[in-house]
Amino acid sequence: METEKRIEITKYFEEVEAKEENKEYEGYFCSLAEVLTISILGTLCGLKNMKQIHQWSINERSKKLLKTHFGINHIPCYYWQLKLMQMIKVESLNECFINWVTSMLPADKKDITVSFDGKTIRSTSKLSGYEKPLHIVSAHIAQLGVTFGSLATEDKSNEIPTVRELIKLLDISGCLVVADALNCQKATAEAIIDAEADYLLNVKDNHETLKEDIEDYIQDDVLRNEMETTRTVEKNRGRFEERTAFVTNEIEWLYGKEDWKGITTIGAINRRVTDKSEETSESWHYFISSRDLSAEELLDHARLEWSVEVMHWLLDVHYTEDSCRIADKAGQKNLNKIRKIALNITRQYKTKIDSKRPMSNIMLDCLLEPEMILEVLTGAVF
Fold first, then answer.
1. How far apart are CA 34 and CA 133, in angstroms?
2. pLDDT at 296 over 60
C-alpha cells in the first residue's frame, strides 16, 4: 500500500516538473512602461493601492484589455509590480507629467489661474525610512480642474522654497498665480514675476505691517468708497453668503511696496455669512497683486485658490491617500503622481462630455466594464 502511494506521489511531482518546464514565465518580462500603464489604468478604476491594482491586472477581463489594446502580454506578480514602481525615476515621471499638462494649455494663458498648496501624506509619519512625514506641493489649474505638476519635501516647513522650485519647472508665463498666506513671500513674488506670470497673494499676520497698512486704508470709509467695488450674493440650502470686493491701484503711499516685485494692486474681500438660524459672521481677507485686477476679477480669482484643496480632498476621498503605507519614498511619490494623472484624465473626460456624474461613478464604470476605460481615455484626449 505504501509503495503504491510513493509511486502516485512520484508521478504527481514528475507531472508538475514537466508542466513547469513547458510553462512560459510571466514575471520578469514586464517593463517599467508597462507597469506604469497598468498602474494608471488601475487607478483610473478608482483602485486605492498597489495590491488592488495587481488583483485587477490579473483578472481575465483586465488581462484581455491589457493585451488587446496596450500590448501587455505578461503581468508580473505583486512583488515585482511594487518593485518596478519604485524603480521609476520620480524626476522623469514629473517631467513627463508637466509636459503632458503643458500640451493642453492655450497659447494665451492670461485667463489661466494656477493655485499652489501642499498636502502631507499622514501615513508616512508612522513609516520607517521617513524622518518626517512626506509633504507634496502641487500646482493646480483651476479652470481645467487638473494638476499641473508637483514636488515632494519631507517637511511642511520646506513648502515655501519648494513652491519656488516648482514655479521654475512650470511654464506659467501669462498665468495668474494664487497662493495662501504661507506663500505670500517676497522671494516667491519675485520668482513668479521672473517666470513672466502675475501673482495674487493672500496677506495675513505673517506680514503684519503690510496687512495693517492695507487694512487701515480699506477700513477708512472715505477711501473705501473711492475704490472699485463689486458684490455677489449666494444662497445654498438656507445659507446666505455675501461677498464684496474692493480694489485700487493707487498704492504710492504703501510702505515697502518696492520690496514686492511688480506689485500694482491691493484689495480686500468682505464675507458675510448668514446661516439657517439667522446668525451672521463676518470676515475680511486682504490681497496684493501684480496684475491690475478689477473688483470682479479679484472675487473670481481669489475663490479659485481653493481648487487645489479640492484636488487634495479627492486624493483622500477616492484613494484614501492618507492611509497609503508604501515604505519606499520613490514608490509613494510615483503613486501620488499616478493618482493625479487619473484625476486629470477623469476630469477632462467629464468636461468633454459635459457630464454631471460624480468622478467616483465614472471610475466605478471603468472597474465594472474594462472597455469603459477606452472610452474615458478617448474622451480625455487633449
1. 30
2. yes
d(CA 376, CA 379): 5
Q: State how far the alpha carbon of 115 is from the alpha carbons of 169, 299, 307, 348, in Å.
A: 15, 15, 7, 18
Q: What is the pLDDT of residue 12?
A: 47
CA geometry: angle 147, 298, 193, nearest 5 deg: 60
**C-alpha span between 90 and 72 (Å, rounded):** 23
Half-sphere exposure for 247 (CA within 13 Å, toward CB): 23
The C-alpha atoms of residue 179 and residue 205 are separated, in whole angstroms, by 15
Find residue 68's DSSP bridge partners.
none
Q: What mean pLDDT is predicted for residues 134-151?
A: 94
Return all residues near 259 (Cβ < 8 A) that are at least 6 apart.
186
Segment (H or E) for 201: strand 198-203
Chain centroid to Cα 178, Å, comes to 15
Are 215 and 203 in contact, with CB atoms under 8 Å apart? no
Greater confidence, 239 or 195?
195
Structure-block grid coordinates of residue 325: 503605507
Does residue 12 come out as left (phi exceeding 0), alpha (psi in the -120 to 50 range) or beta? alpha
For 179-198, what is each residue's pLDDT tens digit? 989 999 999 999 999 999 99
pTM (two decimals): 0.86
Query: What's the half-sphere exposure (Cβ side, CA atoms, 13 Å) at 338?
Result: 31
Q: How many CA atoms lie within 13 A of 136 on its CB side?
A: 28
Q: Which residue type does 300 have?
A: D
Measured in Å, how far apart are the chain's first and last C-alpha atoms? 72
Cell of residue 54, nine digits: 495587481
In the structure grid, which three cell numbers stand for residue 172, read together? 506659467
Residue type at 277 in one-letter notation: S
Average pLDDT (39-46) is: 96
Name the pLDDT band for 53 (thresholds 50, 70, 90): very high
Element (H, E) at 240: strand 239-248
The dihedral over CA atoms of 376, 80, 147, 120, expressed in degrees to the nearest 10, equals: 140
